Task: inverse folding
């Protein structure tokens, strides 16, 4: 089968997904560019850590929804790793705890971060859209929405260097990212393999690509909201985090 | 009963709700202030009409979710009016059709508006948060979230005058608003009466106030996204509406 309705071959599918990442992944977002240039102040990093905490905190719920929708024990065994990575296991901390330590390293108190009281509404809406996606779109789309991890290793490696260089006072706050350097590529490989084997028709492949696009929009919208409230301003919506004067 | 846990009396509850509106309702949003001063260009009004269409288009779904959650036939008979108002009845157009005509009056084609393809992701996420609220929070909160209509008549009256004065080329595109001048206060009176009678404890009253606050955040976030993409810029996210050069 060929023509517009023919399924893409695996390498073509991979190339298309990477193209979406090149265009829409948040490595290009001006908030990240400023961060990596060392141009953000402490209050801006605090706003980022506090808001991004909300995203981190719902990841296990997101993955549990996917787990709940799978009827395949082997898939569930593999996917469960993500929940362990973020929630931790026994004495081992997970990504959420590491993110709290990053926020603490910016100078925020743990309670203030965990309460979520000062999150930008637009960030909350974008993150909740991710839960909505994995709940209400097809299982294939739910899995495909995680494929931003195809692009995250490179961004994280760059970020670790930039944060160490420009914000040395963050100290050990970067453990979250060093852990993700290994976790994210493994997760991405599993998810891509799943999509490559299970998105059999061109329509299903198109859905997978659309889900990845939606996920990129979800990440991008969070940074737009941060940029508008804390960089360009703009203004801070009522009730949201207000940085202390520096 | 008195003290911090005592239920508020009806007039005190009304005053508290109005106070939330004074602080958080989007009549204060700079995008609206610019609109009412006549300071927006055609492309900016198009972006507003196109994005706000998405909000208008889900209102009957929002109200049908509330209808579906009610076990009271009399409540359902009254609430059903909202769906009729927006979807129309027989030869009578509803609010959605009138909004499309407003968008057409700004110079956009109907198909382009109705497709929803060019909506800002942040607007989509905020509007979907409204659906999420009426689905997943208590019934009382779902009803209370409609109480922004307590404040809308005044904003709409102001807007009709301002749009006629500053953008006379909108012509008959303002029918949506003239219809809402009568619909919104009737809806608000019913919803307020329902809350006043059914939010019996202070905790329930607090929930109702929190739901109204959330709804204000939902409206505000839509305008923040419009302002960032089309007024201050900022930038327009990938895939979103790009106004023609004026």
Result:
């Amino acid at each position: 089968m060929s023509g517009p309705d023919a399924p893409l071959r695996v390498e073509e599918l991979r190339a298309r997904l990477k193209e979406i990442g090149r265009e829409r992944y948040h490595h290009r977002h001006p908030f990240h560019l400023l961060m990596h240039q060392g141009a953000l102040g402490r209050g801006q990093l605090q706003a980022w850590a506090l808001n991004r905490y909300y995203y981190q905190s719902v990841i296990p719920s997101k993955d549990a929804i996917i787990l709940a929708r799978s009827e395949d024990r082997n898939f569930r065994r593999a996917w469960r790793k993500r929940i362990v990575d973020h929630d931790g296991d026994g004495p081992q901390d997970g990504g959420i705890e590491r993110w709290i330590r990053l926020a603490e390293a910016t100078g925020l108190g743990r309670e203030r971060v965990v309460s979520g009281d000062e999150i930008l509404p637009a960030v909350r809406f974008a993150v909740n859209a991710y839960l909505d996606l994995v709940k209400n779109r097809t299982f294939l789309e739910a899995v495909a929405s995680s494929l931003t991890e195809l692009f995250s290793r490179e961004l994280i490696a760059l970020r670790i260097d930039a944060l160490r260089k420009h914000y040395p006072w963050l100290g050990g706050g970067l453990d979250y990212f060093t852990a993700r350097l290994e976790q994210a590529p493994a997760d991405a490989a599993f998810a891509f393999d799943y999509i490559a084997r299970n998105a059999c028709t061109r329509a299903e492949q198109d859905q997978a690509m659309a889900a990845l696009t939606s996920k990129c929009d979800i990440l991008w919208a969070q940074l737009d909201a941060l940029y508008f409230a804390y960089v360009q301003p703009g203004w801070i919506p009522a009730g949201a985090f207000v940085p202390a004067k520096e």
Notes: Chain A has one domain: 10-230. Residues 99 and 176 of chain A are 6 Å apart (CA to CA). Residues 10-230 of chain A form a domain with the Heme Oxygenase; Chain A fold (CATH 1.20.910.10). The interface with chain B takes residues 23-24, 30, 121-122, 124-126, 128-129, 132, 213, 217-218, 220-221, 224-225, 227-228, 232, 234-235, 237-239 of chain A (CB under 8 Å).
